[in-house]
Specification:
alpha+beta, Jelly Rolls, Arc Repressor Mutant, subunit A, 2 domains, five-stranded antiparallel sheet, four-stranded antiparallel sheet, 11 helices, 11 strands, globular
Length: 323
């Protein structure tokens, strides 16, 4: 279990009509995001903002950094890998429950020899919201919605309350998939039971204001890189955006992304180049300069390091697949 260094929320707080189709994809796909890396996919509908997914990492070995306003509960069915949630780097294995809070910057990478298979439920907290003055709303949900509190990120099979929490997740997942009569009533009750178990086992903790400020600074720097990746970008430029000194910013960036700003920018440019390789007839040299590289040879070398094949081979294989 992730050991939080925050005050346990349950102790702190003691003081104070339609269905939606589920996605049936058999493999993960790169998350489509805006310039802030906010995921663009709509999860569920306005009336029922919940979606259930079953995926694996057979083709795409990594789910790149993104965030969404909804919360996500993920159950690892088999395989192993690494998850990066804000500053936390977590090892994933069969049976683990990964909890992704609203606005959390996250990415997941599967082990190549032990591919991750998982199912998840993504939901907007507005589905559980009550009217002003409602005790559940005021004492629990509002604090999570306002990022004053959060779920811990990982629960292992040997952790306290795991069986109850895993059982409730499975019931939520199955209820959404089956969509029996009045399932939306059942779902709401199951979610409240899930939150109750999280509280009683101290798996909801308070969030420090400094952490919220730091995350906002990292998101701002990522947005800048997405908007200006074709141009020369210096670490000093990114540090200035965050209003931190350069050394502190570099340390903070690596805590949240697992990469240096330079590594992150290079991988972003490579990701942009993949789209141009597969969807345009631009030459390799033109693509290199179009995505911010100053040298075609350096671009090819970095592309091969990150993808295990040259840009030419990726394009050739995709053409062969279409014929």
């Amino acid at each position: 279990m992730e050991i939080p260094d925050k005050i346990v929320l349950s102790a702190a707080l003691s003081d104070s009509a339609s269905t939606t189709d589920f996605r049936k994809s058999k493999m993960t796909k790169p998350a489509e995001t805006d310039e802030n890396h906010k995921e663009l996919l709509q999860h569920g509908t306005r009336e029922l903002p919940i979606e259930s997914y079953r995926n694996n990492c057979e083709i795409f070995k990594a789910i790149y950094s993104h965030w969404h306003k909804e919360m996500e509960i993920m159950y690892i069915e088999k395989g192993s890998g690494i998850a990066k949630l804000n500053k936390d780097t977590l090892k994933l294995k069969k049976g683990d429950i990964l909890l992704i809070n609203s606005g959390t910057l996250h990415h997941i990478k599967s082990d190549r020899r032990n591919i991750l298979y998982f199912k998840s439920v993504v939901f907007d907290l507005s589905y559980l919201s009550g009217s002003p003055g409602d005790l559940c709303q005021e004492q629990i949900l509002s604090q999570i919605m306002e990022n004053q509190a959060r779920f811990i990120h990982l629960i292992h099979p040997e952790d306290s309350g795991y069986e109850e929490i895993q059982s409730l997740f499975s019931q939520i997942f199955d209820s959404h998939r089956k969509k029996a009569d009045y399932f939306y009533m059942e779902l709401k009750g199951l979610f409240y039971q899930f939150f109750f178990q999280m509280l009683t086992h101290n798996y909801i903790v308070t969030e420090a204001p400094k952490d919220r400020k730091n995350l906002a600074a990292i998101k701002d720097s990522i947005r800048y890189m997405n908007e200006h990746y074709k141009e020369e970008i210096k670490v000093s430029d990114l540090a200035a955006i965050s209003f931190y000194n350069e050394n502190y910013f570099m340390r903070l960036f690596k805590e949240y992304t697992g990469k240096t700003p330079t590594q992150y920018l290079t991988e972003l440019r490579i990701e942009k180049s993949r789209y141009l390789l597969l969807h345009t007839n631009l030459s390799i040299t033109d693509i290199a300069f179009e995505t911010g590289f100053n040298s075609a040879s350096y671009f090819i070398r970095k592309f091969q390091e990150l993808n295990g094949e040259t840009p030419q081979k990726l394009r050739k294989n995709r053409i062969a697949d279409k014929t």
